[in-house]
TrEMBL record:
It comes from Streptococcus suis. This is ABC transporter. Keywords: Membrane, Transmembrane, Transmembrane helix. The chain crosses the membrane at residues 49-75, 109-131, 143-167. The keyword Metal-binding does not apply. PANTHER family: ABC TRANSPORTER PERMEASE, ABC TRANSPORTER PERMEASE-RELATED-RELATED. The keyword Membrane applies.
Length: 178
């Protein structure tokens, strides 16, 4: 009797594998003249396909949420810049120099931006244990790798926010004519 596992031909005789390129990694069960079989290559291909799709969805949703959050914060700061333009003109007339106004703008924009980053990291610190348990159920048991990846993602997240902070701060200064 012969059967096909994946794309490879497997020859069986009374539940024993006679020929297969994956002979060492095959597992068969014989229940009432029906033979169920799988190979390690086939299993790993299915797992890779499942995790590849899951990985794509997670990355895609992460990018969408980060872009959405950055845009909301950016436009909020820019609209506040238009509202604060007159106040900064008054501060310049009173005698506040450009360096002090620039520091004031940076503090204001910095507070608006980095509160989100700080709260995100606090949330991650409390959710890390649950996240670790969920990943262990999926099959990720290397906690050193988990913490390295988590810290790397936090670094990338913070870097993105720093870049957007610099862009927003420049736009804010242009709005108030400094």
């Amino acid at each position: 009797m012969s059967t096909v596992v994946g794309y490879q031909k497997v020859i069986l005789w009374r539940g024993q594998v006679l020929f297969s390129p994956y002979k060492q990694s095959l597992h068969f069960e014989n229940h009432e003249s029906v033979v169920y079989g799988s190979s390690q290559a086939n299993n790993s291909q299915e797992v890779n396909a499942m995790f590849g799709g899951f990985f794509f969805i997670v990355i895609f949703l992460s990018i969408i949420f980060i872009v959405g959050a950055v845009l909301v914060i950016y436009y909020k700061q820019i609209s506040e810049g238009y509202e604060d333009r007159e106040r900064f003109v008054i501060l310049q007339k009173v005698g506040l120099d450009k360096k002090q106004i620039k520091q004031t703008i940076n503090k204001q924009v910095l507070t608006g931006f980095f509160l989100h980053v700080i709260f995100s990291f606090i949330h991650l610190a409390f959710a890390y244990h649950i996240l670790n348990l969920i990943l262990k159920v999926i099959g990720v048991v290397d906690t050193a790798m988990m913490s390295t990846v988590t810290l790397s993602i936090c670094g990338v997240f913070a870097l993105i926010y720093v870049l957007i902070f610099i862009i927003t701060s420049r736009s804010y200064r242009k709005i108030v004519q400094i």
